[in-house]
Amino acid sequence: MRSAVVPPWFVVKSLFALLRGLDRLRNTLTPPPLRLMELVGGYGATQIVRSAAELGLADLLAAGPKTIAELAAGCGADEDALARLIRPLCSLGICRKSASRGAFALGPLGEYLRSDHPETFRATAIAAGREQYDGMAGLTASIRRGGATFPERQGSDFFSCLAQREESGRHFADSMAEISRACLPAVLAEYDFSTIRHLVDVAGGTGALLNGILARYPQMAGTLFEQPSIVARVESSPGQSARCRCVAGDMFDAVPAGGDAYLLQRVLHDWDDEGALRILANCRRVMPSNGRLLLLELGMGGDDEQFVRFHADLLMLSLFGGRERTDDEFRDLLDRAGFTLHCVIETRSPLRIYEAFPSRWGTE
Ligand SMILES: C[S@@+](CC[C@H](N)C(=O)[O-])C[C@H]1O[C@@H](n2cnc3c(N)ncnc32)[C@H](O)[C@@H]1O
Question: How many domains, the chain?
Answer without folding.
Answer: 3
